[in-house]
Specification:
306 residues, mainly alpha, 0% strand
Length: 306
């Protein structure tokens, strides 16, 4: 039984390490556009050139194309990848290839380990199926966490960006010029919302209607606060009201919401600390407090028996 437990732990660790290695080496990352920008010389975020991906990304892409999928499934993955910040359409095939590769690798790892090390494979079908399912859904779990982290960063940066837009608009700039001015600030380049506004600025320069660009901005982020701000911009554009007042109201509301979120997390912190306290600290305290009495009781019981 101990060999089985140790084998399962080792295989699980190998599976997670292999999944992390594949996800890191397939090129699905925030910095995947840096080589393309350097090669093109323009620094645009809306160009995807062939040959700019890495070796493992090309391998996963070929595997994903051979496996294939339905159009609805591809559309769903494409939307999730866009919300995670991956604008390259080839990322869908890379993700599908990574899912298949991890499922096959995780399913075969237990059998290979058992044949090479233990010379016996207990419960091979059950363990192989479980590891294959875990490997298949591991990229989905990673993608879901990536979307949550990106949306959290967008929500936290939204008040600052609205403040900058408000300053530019109240200084006499139009909306398009204010957006172009804001995206030129290099100190905010690491924010995902800054990249989304940069993409919207490029779309506006290319002649796309403002309402379509704004709606697409809200869909790409998937954040309700950004969608509310976009709806306010669209209504302001339609009704012809003051854009500066709308930006001021939205910036104040967004800042208040950010403060409320911080206060909520601060109030939940003591409650969340109760779980590790009860699970880890309370048994130790009880053992230290009750150990002398328990040992004394054992001594008394032993003396009575004698």
């Amino acid at each position: 039984m101990s060999y089985v437990i140790v084998s399962f732990i080792v295989v699980t660790a190998i599976t997670f390490l292999a999944g992390y290695f594949v996800l890191r080496r397939t090129g699905i990352g925030v910095d995947r556009l840096a080589p393309m920008a350097a090669a093109s010389g323009t620094g645009t975020i809306a160009r995807f050139e062939p040959g700019s991906e890495g070796y493992w990304q090309r391998v996963m892409e070929r595997l994903g194309r051979r496996v294939g999928s339905t159009d609805a499934r591809r559309a769903g993955l494409r939307h999730k990848l866009i919300m995670a910040g991956f604008q390259d359409p080839r990322a869908v095939m890379v993700l599908m290839g990574a899912k298949v590769a991890l499922a096959a690798g995780a399913g075969a790892s237990y059998m290979l380990y058992g044949l090479l090390v233990q010379r016996i494979v207990p419960n091979v079908l059950l363990v192989t199926a479980i590891l294959a399912v875990v490997g298949f859904f591991l990229p989905d779990f990673w993608l879901r966490n990536r979307i949550k982290e990106r949306q959290r960063a967008i929500v936290n940066f939204l008040p600052d960006l609205l403040d900058m837009l408000m300053v530019c608009v109240e200084a006499g700039m139009g909306f398009d010029a204010a957006v172009a001015r804001v995206v030129e600030q290099p100190q905010y380049a690491k924010s995902p919302l800054h990249r989304e506004f940069q993409r919207m600025s490029l779309e506006l320069r290319a002649g796309r209607p403002r309402m379509e660009a704004l709606r697409d901005l809200g869909e790409r982020t998937g954040v309700q606060e950004v969608k509310s701000v976009v709806s306010a911009f669209i209504q302001t554009d339609r009704l012809g009201t003051s854009l500066g007042k709308t930006l001021r109201v939205q910036a104040d509301a967004s800042r208040v919401q950010r403060r409320h979120r911080a206060e909520t997390k601060a109030q939940l912190a003591p409650l969340m600390m109760l779980v590790p306290t009860i699970l880890f600290l309370l048994p130790s305290f009880m053992m230290v407090a009750a150990a002398p009495s328990f040992l004394r009781i054992l001594q008394i019981m032993g003396s009575i028996g004698k």
